[in-house]
Amino acid sequence: VFCRITELRKMVRAVAHLPGTWRLLYYDAPTRGEQIRLLFALGGVPLQDVRLWPFPNGLDPYRKAALGADSPLLGTDKCPCVTAPDGTHCVETSNIMHFVGHQIGMAPQTEEADERAVNLCLIAQELLDEVFYPLLMPMLVRRLTRTELLGLLRPLSGLLGDRSAKVEPAVAALRARLPALERALEASGGTFFSGEALTFESVALFNALRDILAYECVGDELASYPRLAAFMAALEARARPYFEERTATHQCGYPDVVSYLAATNTPFPWSRVAKQRD
Questions:
Q1: Among 10, 119, 218, 233, which residue's beta carbon has the most beta carbons within 10 A?
Q2: Angstrom distance (rounded) from CA 123 to CA 83
Q3: CB within 8 Å of 176: residues ≥ 6 apart
């Protein structure tokens, strides 16, 4: 018992920021904070990627209760949180994307273009709130009921959370966003939302759309949006090395969010995959 308590304490100890480097505090799950990891990867900028675990206690050593005024969470007690090489902290995902983008050369060059990029980055966060997160639990339930116990739980899928009342509004919210994004790409005159320059808002939107489009309940929604389809294909090619490394190193060989979270969080212990942690 004592050894187990000691092990758990080690799991939640704070990791100090290394001066001169970027540090990200976010949970191990490839959810909201993943766009920040991807931004650094596509920018070729080294990152001290502190993957907090377990959820939610992994954040405890950084909260105000533990660090007082020195907490990098700036009073929010939430993550993601980024610390810049000079020790400056930044919280809230859209603010982080904007801040990091400017610091690492992945931001538009004019004030007008930057304002458009900020608004598009906010749309990416809204896609997560309105589509990705509402669909996550139904899709996890759907996968588990189809794969566990030889699929015998499948008739109970609706009772366990995979309901059309949850799925249909989220898919409708996605469809409502796509025309404006297609027009924004057309107006940019290039492959990305800032023309041919890959900037932070394009990374945010790509990451959100990629995870949403991977859901089983979402069809070929980009069939009528050729610019969006080309945008996704172009960034998929650029990001492939990152996703391959993420799958192998951080996701136990599972390439998408649902399969990874289902495998590592299934309520059935005989099929739960235990991730090796430092």
A1: 218
A2: 24
A3: none
CA 199 to chain centre: 17
For the chain, give the number of residues. Answer: 278
> Which regions in the chain score pLDDT beneath 70?
1-11, 150-162, 278
Please give the DSSP secondary-structure letter assigned to residue 52: E
| d(C-alpha 104, C-alpha 43), whole Å | 7
Q: Which two tokens stand for residue 258?
A: 């649902």
Distance CA 41, CA 119 (A): 23
| Strands annotated E in the chain | 22-27, 47-52, 81-83, 89-91
Measured CA to CA, the distance from residue 214 to residue 162 in angstroms comes to 16
User: Are 28 and 53 spatial neighbours (Cβ–Cβ below 8 Å)?
Assistant: yes
pLDDT at position 11: 55
Give residue-wise pLDDT tens across range 48-61. Answer: 999 999 999 999 99
Q: Over the stretch 135-153, which tens digit does the pLDDT of each residue have?
A: 999 999 988 888 877 565 6
Question: What is the DSSP code (8-state) at residue 110?
Answer: S
Burial track 27-37 (b if 16+ CB lie within 10 A, e otherwise): bbbbbbbbbbb
* Closest CA relative to residue 123, chosen from 193, 183, 181: 181
Report the greatest alpha carbon distance in the chain: 62
Yes or no: say if 194 and 205 are a contact pair by the CB < 8 Å rule. Answer: no
What span, in angstroms and rounded, lies between the C-alpha atoms of 142 and 162?
Answer: 6
Whether 225 and 233 have beta carbons less than 8 Å apart is answered as no
Would the pTM count as exceeding 0.90? yes
- Angle among Cα 68, 77, 88 to the nearest 5 degrees reads 70
